[in-house]
Each structure stands twice: as structure tokens, then as C-alpha cells.
Amino acid sequence: MIQINNISKSYKGRSILNDVSFTFETGKTNLIIGESGSGKTTLIRCMIGLSEPDSGEVLFNGRSFYKIDSDQQKEIRKEIGMLFQGGALFDSKTVEENVMFPLSMLTDLSYAERQERANFCLNRVKIENANTLYPSEISGGMKKRVAIARAIAVQPKYLFCDEPNSGLDPKTSIVIDNLIKEITEEYDITTIVITHDMNSVIEMGDNIMFIYKGIKWWSGAKSAILKTDNAEVNDFVYAAEFMKNVKSKL
Fold first, then answer.
1. Helices (H), 32-125
2. Which of 7, 72, 136, 211 could disulfide-pair with 68, CB 3.0 to 4.6 Å?
3. In this structure, are strands 207-212 and 14-24 parallel, antiparallel, or unpaired?
4. Residue 245 pLDDT > 70, yes or no?
5. How many of the other CB atoms lie within 10 Å of CB of 129?
């Protein structure tokens, strides 16, 4: 579980986040949604230690990240898996080498043990016979699955996903959504997903926070988001659905 309490952050006198509190639950897919510029990315940066909040605290299973020493912070960082928006695979490394990379950086496993773990993770995301291929030789959907394999290689307690469906077709997006949800439940991970994709919200939104102009404006489960009378949430949800329908007719 991750708790954020009263997080505020400003840049050059401009308020980005204002007193945001929320609980991200273990074993569930926790979604952060909102318009571009609403503060979602800044919030994630504060949560993983890339940007210190002006006030408030971030607790990883009760450990207050900004109140512990640097060695303890490093231990928490070792428990975090990251799935970046573009996948962020290393072009010069093979699929297998990409998945092995965090194991080389963060563990004392032997080469054979790292290779075994990498292959286990690749099999878990249904990537076969692609170990020696390079990112340029596989599809966008496969790149995302390899990126997921890399993110779970170190057996994280916390998984952060930034727009995991960016650039993917609707069918592949559903595959990635289902995979993230399955892995979250299977390994009892606290998963946090930033997304603009309403299909993702409906497919895997166990616990959703809507941020509006740096403020937590609404929260609830996917079963509630289509029934809310919150005007800003409705504008976001139905504008996304409208644009999706327009694009499908072009």
C-alpha cells in the first residue's frame, strides 16, 4: 500500500499540486486520470523521489519516504518497478538483455540466475523465441510486454505505469490492460497507472483518482465513474469517448 498525505508542489510560484491525499491499495490497479497539465506526472515524480514535494508525505507500507535516510530510500527504490510511456527499452540490447538489466543493477544474482529470471518473466508475459531480437525487430505490443517483463524482473512491491497503452491499437491495448491487472493480482503488487484511455479505466480501474488543476477532485471505482454527477469528471470521460468515436469513423 502507498499513502500520500497532503502533497503540495509548486514550480516558480505556480501551484502544481494542492493538498492531495489518497491511498493506493495493494493487489489492485490504482489509476490516476485527468487532463494534460493537471499534475499527474508531478505527483508520480514526488512519489518515487524524483521531485521532493513542498509539503506532505509519501508512505510505502508505513515508511515515510522523505523522513528516512538515503540508504532506506534506496531500499524502497529497489522495490519499485517502472513501465515508461514509450517502453524505454535499450535499442542496443536484445530483448533478454533488456529484461536482465535491472537485475544486473539491483541484485547480486549470477549471470545464469539473471538469465533464468529474465526468461521466467518473458514467459509470463507470453514472449517466446524473441530473446535474441532487438527492439527494432519486434512490434509495439511486444515492446510493451518486454517492458512489463523488465519491470517485474526484480519482483517489485510497487509498479508504476505511465500511459502503458500509448501508441497501441485498441485490441493490443486490451491485452496490455489485462496483463497489468493479472500481474497485479497474481503477485499482490501495488500498481499505479497514469492513463487517458477510458477503455483502461473501465477494464482495470479498481481504485481511481481524478486530478483537476492539481486537486484531487473525485475518487472511486470503475463502477462509479460513469454514474457520477461530478461535472469535471463527466467532461473528461465523455470527451474522451467522443473523440475515440470520431477517430474510429475517420
1. 40-47, 70-77, 95-106, 111-124
2. 72
3. unpaired
4. no
5. 8
